Each structure stands twice: as structure tokens, then as C-alpha cells.
Amino acid sequence: MAAPLSLQGCLLILPLVWLMTGSGFRATANPDHVFTSATGLGEVEMQHLTDPVVQLSPPNSEAEASSLLASACPDTHKFHQQHSAIAFPVENIPGLTIKVIGNTVFSREEVMDAVREVTQPLEKRYVTVRFLLTAPEKYTQRKEFADLKNVLENLPNNIAGAITDLYLTKGYINSQAEVSSFENGVVEICVIEGSLEQIQIFEIIETEESGSRQITDSENQEENTEVQKVEVTGRWASYIRDRIQLGTGTPLNTAELEDQLRLLRDDPIIGGIEARLVATGERGQTNLNVHFTKVNPFEGSVRADNFSPPSVGSERLGVELSHRNLAVVGDRISFSRSATLGADVVDLGYRLPLNSMNGTLTLRIAPNRNDIIQSEFDDFDIRGETDLYEIVYRQPLIRKPREEFALSLGFTFQEGQTFIFDSLGIPFGIGPDEDGVSRTSVIQFGQEYLRRSSRGAWFLGSQFSFGTGFFDATANEGEVPDGQFLSWLGQVQRVQRISGNHLLVVQAELQLTPGSLLPAQQFVIGGGQSVRGYRQNVRSGDNGFRFSIEDRITLERNQTGVSTLLLAPFFDAGIVWNHPDNPNQLPSDRFLAALGLGLIVQPESQLSFRFDWGIPLNLLDDRDDNFQDLGYYFSVNYRF
Known about the structure:
- The chain is mostly beta strands.
- The protein folds into 2 domains: about 10-55 and about 295-640, Porin (Beta Barrel); about 70-190, no CATH class.
- About 15% of the residues lie in helices and about 40% in strands.
- The protein contains 10 helices and 28 strands.
- Strands 10-11-12-13-14-15-16-18-19-20-21-24-25-26-27-28 form a 16-stranded antiparallel barrel.
- β11 (about 315-325) and β12 form a beta hairpin.
């Protein structure tokens, strides 16, 4: 029989509802969104981890490929003055010195190792260069001597070729070493390190004759073809060019260039992209032709789930709409709204790109209105409302296809009030003022690290929250929770592909604080997005820890190899505890743990269903007969 719910047990219901739209960093345990944060890292899709690196289209001919390389070593005094030199003698070949000018990439040891591959046949012969070049005829007629002399005569070109190969193997495809001189036993090699002269950007536009967008290498557009190529200037050209130029230093390295092209391919505003290096006819300089397609800037989704607290109605419907490139290329405005029988949650956000490293500024407003709908409290007309305003600056310091490290700095102002008899302000719990009002003005400093590989991904997240007194934040004496606080939230998440049909998802998060917190800042556990087997937000505390492990087992795939039917056995656990001096008391059963099984159905890329059944390993005294208390959860999502 379900335990009766008292008014005392309802004291924290409304503040816990506010947590649903509180700090965006607060990660959820929903396995459908493995890596989720408000900073924009987004969901990591495993098929994305094994995609090949964007390939640069090769030149049309061998002659064009050769013309990409630097040539005609400059015989100028200025070149020698502008470039440092590496000089070293060849072991056991007295009188032979190698001098390399123009190298800015490789160390002395790396150059020596490359040269040694060529000079090896001459080493340990103890023959001077002068003797090989001026020996009497009786020596020159010997085969061994002739072979050595032939090696010496070809040595300068072979050394230049070895250094060129060193550049090529490291991805510097338009850099080349050439012989400058060979005099008095000194082989002088000059290196012309290649660069990128110009980036031309073309958009591939779908025409009426085509059924789909394509990218083409054709330089000339004829009538009645499937696509039309248009050179792009202005904002779009700047957006793409600025990002590509992060990988186009001197000397030009194709691996770094491909990294930037791959990041652009993953950009949600880009439908497809490819590039081709084109010779310019100038020594060591090439052009880059880039072809790309745009995607529809409008996105939307509708969803239904039972991830809301039963006190305001567990079943909810939601819609999310977003539009990119509204004011500038790469920006995004989003609107979402979800509703239950007692809750109405709105979230409006705008994200503005600031630089080519994808630094962003995010503005967010989230007003919420909630009414308690449980029959036990019908006579009290309990309701709550809260407004959240947030601004966050996020800046990646390392950004590569397989690795990202970013810092963020944000400020969040949140104000909430609870009412009884519909309009009488009253506090629920200890902390809000006598009218039930609580305010927090929080400075947040976050750090994120993401590492991908072909077999999985790591995400490490950390956020420090500093409660301030700005904007009349709640202030109380002693250990009563208020708006002045310090807390730390850490996250570790791992996705590991065990085999072709097994994907392991492991998550853990920990919150610590040296003081007492208002309910909106506390750590919550329970529900379909946290510890399954229990109702949403069933426990909260100043400090907390949560752990989840899930094995996604693919049962069926479609013709393209994408999983369409999966089983997901899981184990969830969590615990919360308060600061010893917090006057708000917690129930004795603060540890939750459950085993369960999930079913994931994805009949098409835009539609997904998920059903979970969690079996609690310890029953709570306040367990009810809601579907969540019985361990049943569902979610349906359709994207358009």
C-alpha cells in the first residue's frame, strides 16, 4: 500500500521542480544523450567516431602534383640571411659537411637521421672527400673506388631527396629541398617550405533538375546539370575561410588542414565539404578550392516522456524549435516548451559565435510555472514560479576532431517564489524568506575535456559555482541556506565499443560543498534521467554522488548498418547528504540503487523510442504507486 504523502513531505516539491531548468551543466543520466552539457558539446554519436578523416582531392595529373612542390632553390644572399642553418659533419667521412638552410619544422637530430640514410654507404670507409675527387688514375679504375665516387657525386641530390621525403611523410606536401651548392666538401641544401596562397570557396546549390545536393569537382558548370556551383563571398566565405586558416600555417601541413576541414564537416550548418589543392605556378605556393553545401537552418523536435515529478504531473509533452544563421553565420536561436498537467516550462536561448575556434556567447531565459496536482493538496492550491536568466562565455583552447578542451565563464540569476491558496506567498523549507522568495546570483567557472577515438570517447567536466550577493540574493544568518555559497560539480563519462554489437556507457558525477544550499542548487537523484527505479527528483541534498553503467546491445540493423533495435541492461546508483548544520533534514534512506533493462527502437534516423524498467534494490518509505515509483519510464522523440 502506498504511503500517504504529508504536507511536510511536500515542502521541497516545488523547488525540486525548478531544478529541471536550473544550471544547464547539471548532466542527466539519460542514456540517449551520453554527453550532454549546456556548453554545446552535444551528443556524441558512436558512428561519428569511426568516420574517416576528410580527404583532400588529389591533383588532376602527375605534372600538376609536381608543380605543387617548391622548386628552383633561390640563390640569393637575402634567403640565407632570413633563414637559420643546420650544419653537421658526416661521421667517418672526413671533409664532408651537410648544411641545411630554410628548415623551421624539424630538429637537428631529425634532419641528421634522414641524411644518415643516404650517407650510410660512405660511412666507415675512412676515405676523404678530397681524395675521392682528386685521386690518381690507378685508384679511379678500381670498381670499389668508382662506386664510392659515384655515390659521392649523387650524394647532394640524394640528401635533398631524403629531406624532401621527410617533409612529405609528415604531411608537408608542397615543401621541397634542393641542392644549393657543393663546394669544398660542403653540401648546402636549401628548403623551400610551402604555403597556401589563396582559399576560394564555392557553394554547391541544388537545382530543379537534381533530386539531392551533391558536391562536384567540376570546374565548369554546364546547363541541365544536377548542381550549380557559385563562388561565395561575404559572411559565409569569412566563416569558412577563418576556420580553414587555423590549419594553413607555413609550411602547409595536410594533416592540420584536414583537421579543420573535418571540423567544418561536423559543423551543424554545413551539409558537406571537400577541398582540392591547386598549383599556382609560384614556388612553394598553392591554392585551395573548397566546395560545400548548406543545410536547412530550421530544426525542430517533438517529444513525450514521463520524466517530470509526479507532484506536477509525470507525463509531459514538449516541442523544441531552433533556427541557425539568423543574424550572423553560425548563430542559433532556440525555443522549447514542455507541459504537464501542472507544469509549464519555457526555455529561450541565443548562441552567438565569437571566433574561429568556436568561442560562443550564450544568452538564456527560462520562466517556469508549476502547480501541485496531487489530490491530497487540492484544498491548498500550492503553486510555484521561477525565472532564470543566464549568460555564458565558452572558449575552446584545444579543438581538434578527436580532442577538445574548453573553459567557460557564466553568470546565472534565478528567482523563485512558492504560494499557498494560489496567491499567499509562503516558504517551503528553511532558506527562502517569509514570502517564499529565494534568489541566487551565481558565477560559474567550467572546464571540459573531450577525447574521441575509433573505439570510444571520454568526457571530463568540472564546474565551480560561486554564490554572490548581487541583485538582492537571498541572505540568511548562520548555517541557514542562502545565496552565498561555494559548490563543485564534477563529471566523468565514458563510451566504449566493446564489440560490433556492444556499446558500454559509463557515467559518474559528484557534487561537493562546504556549506548548506538552497534547494535549486542541490544535487538530485531519482527518475528516468538519473537513478531509474525511483520517481523523478525523489532525493536531494547539498552533496551527492551518482553512478550509472549501461550496455547497449544491438539486435537489429538497417541496410546502412545503423542500429534500429537495442536492449540496454543497466545499473544505477546514487546517494545524497546534507551539510551537518543544514536545518533541512533528509530522510534516512538517502541511498538509491537499481537494476533494469531498457529497450531502444529507432525505426528511422528522425524517430526514436525508449522504454526502461528499473527494479529498485532498496524500497523507500515514501514510495507511491506512480509509474515512476514502479520503475517504468518511456520517451518518444521525433526530429524534423
